[in-house]
Design a protein that fits this description.
254 residues; alpha/beta; 4-stranded antiparallel sheet; 10 strands; binds adenosine-5'-triphosphate
């Protein structure tokens, strides 16, 4: 079986500064990949390059066998590859329902559109109780759930989730992770970029560690959990900690 996502020798540069150096990996359908690594390792850049938000300088991205390298983000999304949370994906002044209606406007039929919205509310019952509330007044966790619901409403087959837990209280992070688990149960393939290493590895089947813009390790999550202390300590090569002060990436694994 060929992989749903194939990334081959991907390079990205911001002006003269290279951020990714020949990143390669495969992801099979219906699996969850955790992408881990210290600040500035290139995780978000990798997500943006796959979803068409930054142009790769070299290399290839294939989705379901099709070369999507350099396609505009909206075309990539139409193929079923989305990123969440995505700033532009959520309209703060619109209600929850209006946001979902906007997300499903490209559905071919009215019945399809209604089914997509119903499915979003089944996956996120908390949102079903807030259909008329403006998205900007939802709590942080509810906004993240709405951004996931919006991504789902795009008929997503591969979802890239970048730092969903950023700025959320730990108890809210738990709820958001449960909601990602529900997306997984619907057969969506997921790439999760996450500062909470342990939670990400609990959810994921596979793990890829980026350091200084290159893949430093890849394998199963089970292997990563067994070896994490030697694989990735959140330390720079000079021994300083990238996440001094917050340190969730390492503290949760002590
Ligand atoms: P974090 O966990 O802090 O989000 P990250 O692993 O996601 O880090 P990236 O945000 O992808 O890392 O950054 C990789 C490198 O590219 C860093 O050196 C960063 O400073 C640089 N970079 C990221 N975005 C830009 C940009 N828009 N313009 C210039 N340089 C950028």
């Amino acid at each position: 079986m060929s992989a749903l996502l194939e990334v081959e020798d991907l390079e990205v540069a911001y002006g003269p500064a290279k951020a990714l150096f020949g990143v390669s990996f495969h992801l099979e359908a219906q699996r969850v990949l955790a992408v881990l690594g210290p600040n500035g390792a290139g995780k978000s850049t990798l997500a943006r390059a796959i979803t068409g938000l930054v142009p790769p300088a070299a290399g290839h991205v294939r989705f379901d066998g099709r070369d999507i390298t350099g396609l505009p983000a909206h075309e990539i999304r139409r193929l079923g590859l989305s990123q969440a949370p995505e700033g532009r994906g959520l309209f703060p002044s619109l209600t929850v329902l209006e946001n979902l209606q906007a997300a499903t406007r490209r559905c071919r039929t009215r019945a399809e559109r209604r089914a997509a919205i119903e499915q979003a509310f089944e996956t996120y019952p908390a949102l079903a109780q807030r259909t008329k509330q403006r998205a900007g007044t939802l709590s942080g966790g509810e906004q993240q759930m709405l951004s996931l619901a919006i991504a789902l409403a795009h008929n997503v087959r591969l979802l890239i989730i970048d730092e969903l837990s950023l700025g959320l209280a730990p108890i809210v992070v738990d709820r958001v992770f449960e909601s990602v688990q529900r997306i997984r149960e619907r057969g969506v393939t997921i790439v999760v970029i996450e500062q909470f290493v342990e939670r990400a590895l609990e959810l994921a089947d596979d793990c890829l560690i980026l350091q200084h813009g290159a893949v430093s390790w890849q394998g199963t999550s089970a292997q990563a959990r067994a070896d994490i202390k030697t694989l990735y300590l959140g330390q720079n090569t000079d021994g300083t900690n990238d996440r001094a002060g917050s340190a969730p990436a390492t503290a949760s694994l002590q």
